[in-house]
Every structure is written in C-alpha cells, then in structure tokens.
Amino acid sequence: MSQIAGAPGGVRVEGAEAVLAQLDDEQRAAAQAVSGPVCILAGAGTGKTRTITHRIAYGVHTGAFVPEQVLAVTFTARAAGELRTRLAGLAVGGVQARTFHAAAMRQLRYFAPRVLGGPMPELVENKLRLVAAAASRSRLSTDRTSLRDLASEIEWAKTTLATPDDYPVRARAAGREPPFEPAAVARVYASYESAKQRDGALDFEDLLLVTAFALEEHPDVARQVRGQYRYFVVDEYQDVNPLQQRLLDAWLGGRADVCVVGDPNQTIYSFTGADPDYLLGFADRYPDAEVVKLERDYRSTPQVVALANKLIGQAPPRKGLPGLRLLGQRAEGPAPRFFEHPDEPTEAAAVAQACRALVEAGTPAAEIAVLFRINAQSEVYENALAAVGVPYVLRGGERFFERPEVREAILLLRGAAAGGTEPGALVPTVRDVLASTGWVEHRPPPGGAARDRWQSLAALVDLAVDLVAEDATMDLAGFVSHLAARADAQHAPTVQGVTLASMHAAKGLEWDAVFVVGLVDGVLPISQSLSRPEAVEEERRLLYVAVTRAREQLTLSWSLVRNPGGRRTRPRSRFLDGLVPGSTPTAAPPQRRQKRAKVVLEGEAGELFERLRAWRSETAASASVPAYVVFSDATLQAIAESRPASLRELAALPGIGARKLELYGEDVLSTLGS
C-alpha cells in the first residue's frame, strides 16, 4: 500500500482519497488547499461545514496538519460541537474546535498566574447588575429595557475596541441610537469598567481582550500558544468583530496558515460590531491567498435559488472579493408565492391557514417557519396559529436547556437514573418521569405558556424515541449523559411546532416551507436604517438570509395597514421590486432610495410626522435635553406610518422601551389624535 512521503507514522493515501471522494469539484479544491492563507466563500446551502471538516481531515490524513495543532473557531457552542462530531466521523481526533470565547477562556485560565498574577478572575455572566449600579451612580433613571440597551452599547463598544473616552464620537460615526445621550452612556461605560476592575472580575469581552494582551505583551506566552497552534480555521468570518480579529492576529503572530470561511451576502450583524471588511479585504491583506467559491446550493430548489440570486443581484457591487451566485442542485419545485393583504391580522390568518394546510397534507410542523423582521410582529401570528389549532415554537427567546420545566425534568431523570433502569425501557421510563410533573402526553394545552411547557417536555420524549431507534441498548443513564452533552453544546432537540422567529434568529437554520411576512418599507428596511445606504443594504441581505432558509416552498407577504379599518398607505418593501411578478427592479442609487423613503411620509403620514417633531421639540426643550434623547427621527417616522391606537401598539414599535413608553406614551397618542 502506498504512503504519503514524509507523513508522520506513514499516513495511508486511501484515507485522504476517501475524504475527497465525498466532495464536489469546488469543495474538493477547497479541501486540498491546506497551506498558506485560504479564503472559502461559501454561499447559502453550499456545504460549508462539510467542506471545513473535510479540509481538516484531508490535511490530517495527508500529514499536512498535526491534529493537535489545529484550532477551529466559530461563533456558537453548537457549531463547534457539530465540527467535532463530523471530524470524529472522518476518523480525526485531537483537533480543537471551540468558540472564540471558549478558546480564550481555556488559554487564559492556564496563563492567568503568569499574566494576571493570580488565579482566573470571576467571570461576569450577566452585565445587568453592574450596569444598573453604574447607571445609578450616573443618576440615570432606568428600567430593565434601558439597562439591556446600555449593556448592549457597552458590548458594542468593547467589541469595536472603543474606550469610554472615544465612545461618543465612535457611536455617532456608526449611526448608533443609544438609549441615552452618548456622553451619558460613556459615563456609565466608564463606571461599569471601574466597578468590574474593583471587584477583580472579567466580562466575556475581557476574555478576548486579556488573552490578546497576554500574547502581545508576554513573549513566553506567545511562544507557547503559537507553538501549540499552527493552523487556524475561522468559520462565519463575515461576522468577526475588531476584538475577535485582534485575538486572531495575536494567535497567528504574523503567520499565514489561516483558512477563513464566510459569505459576504450574509453579513447581517454590524449592529453588534461585526465588520465584513475583514472578509471582503482578505485577499488585499494576503495577496497570495487562495480564494475558492462554493456556489452549488444543495438546500433549496432552483426556484428559491433564482429568487435569492435576483434579490442580492440588485444590491450595489461591493469592493473586495468576487460575488457569489448560487447554482441550484435540487429537483424543480414550486415558484415562490407573493401575497398582498389589507391588514396584518388578515395576513396572519392567511399564513396560519396555509400552515394548517401544509400540516394536514403531511408536512411536519417543525419543518415550517414564519420569519419576521422584529420580534414585536410575532404576537399576531401566535394568535392566528392558536386560532386554527397549529402548534408553534418561539425561537430566539430563552434557551431550551435553561427553561425551568426542562431543568426540573433533567433533575428528575438524573435521580431516576441513579436508581437503575431496565434495558429497553428508556422511552416508557422517560414518559413516567415526566408524568410525575403533571405532563400528559396526548393532551397538549391550547396555547400560551402552558403549551410551551408541554412542548418542551414532549421534545424530550421524542428525543428518547429517536435515540432508541439508533441504539436499542440506550438506557436512562446514557440518555441523561446525552442530554448533558447537548446542553453543553446548546443543541436543543426538535420541538414540534411551526417556528416563529426573527430573520436574525433564523440564520443558520432551514425548513421545508418558509413564510416571510410583514414586508413593508419602514419594517424591512427598518426605519432606523433609512438614513444610511449601507444600513439599507444590510437589510437587503437580511431578507436574502430569510429567503435562503427555504428548501422547497417560499411565500412572501405584506399588508397595506397594520390594523383593520386604517388607511392603506404602507408600501411593500422596496426589496420586492423586480421580484414580484410584473414589477421592475428599482435601479436608483442609494441617494434616491432616501428620496423614496421621504415620499412615504407625504399626505397624512407626513403631517403626523411633523406634528410629532413639533411635540418632540417642546418636550426636549422643557426637559433641557437634545431632541434625539426623546425619540429619534426614525422612531417618529415609524409612529407616523403605523399610527398606533394604544400603548400596547406603541410599545411594539422599534425604539420605544418601557421607560419611554412611561414618559411619553400618553403624550404621543394624544398628539396623534389631536
């Protein structure tokens, strides 16, 4: 049997060839690019994870990589767990696949005595307590919503390497809309940092910052870490922020054995500090980089792929790497459907009926998703689905394994496992344990929190059934261990129900049938983005992400007014121009897009907007604060367009937290009605 010359231990050629045999031509080219800087542009549904893992496996099997010297970093524990599982299936062990934070935590814990002069400091897992204290010291009146917004601003500042001193300038330049005046946020940020240092604690951003500092300023630490890790893979590279890039540069130490993988068309997290320029400028930074494009879409039908290509093809060209155009590889499917509705309840009712028809025709409810731009849009769909008896699941809220009913169930299962169980009795035992909590298998409650609780426990039973089908010897102790491993990786079991999710929360997921709803200007693109062309284009990419979640059936819809009986003045999203049959794409540059947004506010909406601006000026003057502290123009535009008739409707609009609702809600409604 032939061997690779110079490979450690005489690596067999057949292992490497078997790895390549499972890939298409472009994936194979990426897998064989195992030296120097490599950039893999992986479009939606093109087998990105498969390509990454096969590239690592090929490098190990050919001797190009020593597995213990490979560090693959990604953004979620679940994605890292998926990498490890697939590598194990390719007979590759020893590779470190971790999130940025997990990798930094592991290194910093080891080097803390040398770098920090003592053991690993306590980790601040939730900023709200410290932020609340810092806000109080700054004499800011806050509610929980404002505290979350302040914590988000501090996280954005730290991930973009902004200090408290330069936060105000950086925030204005980035178009941020903080909950308080930028100078006030900067004071809270500085006070938060001082309190954290006084307590001797680190937050999650500090993990990356201090680890980078350790490598930059301690040559002995740098030698040890760089000696350990020689080959790097970075998944979802379009989402890297400046802090993560600084850590990556520190790991590399000027070396170029790095492979980055990403999709420029899925850059949708700039509001968190992500900077797609690292991906777009990779070839400029590494002129000798090998760039491989993956464009064969194995997820979606050619009809869905064609719509996605047309949507992203209308975006202005971006400097940097070549663009991606997906090539559908699946069999033909139905054409995407477009529906206009008179109002949102009618739109939601139509979507709910369509979901019910799909379920009755045999599509599992878990293979259907309803995607919207903002979480406030979910309530009308929750009500509509409940009305027709279709179960649903809200994604993006509390993590599955942190739900009280799941935590209680796992404790009970662990206790039962300690007493021993009979072989082959896993599923009945799980059912009995859950029944002790009051759960009844075939009697789901009609809706609300009780229904959510029932579905969570039902998902545990379904998982037990699936595991027994794979391994008939699985016992309760093994099941509890399996649940622990899933919890560590945040790999939640499938909960049977139609998924309701924001477009951001849907990234990385896929379903047989997808309904993309609420597609009107002011919602998508969202009002806050209209003053900045680059922000509008990120909204287009957000719709692209939503569209490419569909495997077979795709429906896009919008409604002309929010509530029944209102004036039907809302225009459908500008991104649908050229996609809806009979429409033509808008070829105007971003500057004219702004003009179009202005036209929306003519007539009654325009009058309301000016009335709201006048009210805001008076309110700001009486409080001696800048006008934007009351409400931004984007928020006033959203109010003028939607004309909320109650505090509840007003609270659902972007830019209105509980504190502002309390301060200004009644005045806004009075202004609208005057």
From TrEMBL:
Annotated UvrD-like helicase ATP-binding domain residues: 21-301
Enzyme class: isomerase
Pfam entry (one): UvrD-helicase
Binding site for ATP: 42-49
Enzyme Commission number(s) of this protein: 5.6.2.4
Alphabetized UniProt keyword annotations: ATP-binding, Helicase, Hydrolase, Isomerase, Nucleotide-binding
Gene Ontology terms for molecular function: 3'-5' DNA helicase activity; ATP binding; ATP hydrolysis activity; DNA binding
Entry GO terms, CC: cytosol; DNA helicase complex
Transmembrane segments: none
Reactions catalysed: Couples ATP hydrolysis with the unwinding of duplex DNA by translocating in the 3'-5' direction; ATP + H2O = ADP + phosphate + H(+)
PROSITE patterns: HRDC, UVRD_HELICASE_ATP_BIND, UVRD_HELICASE_CTER
CDD domains: DEXQc_UvrD (cd17932), SF1_C_UvrD (cd18807)
Residue intervals of the HRDC domain: 602-674
BP term (GO), one: recombinational repair
UvrD-like helicase C-terminal domain segment(s): 302-552
Family the entry assigns: Belongs to the helicase family. UvrD subfamily.
Protein name: DNA 3'-5' helicase
Organism classification: Bacteria, Bacillati, Actinomycetota, Actinomycetes, Geodermatophilales
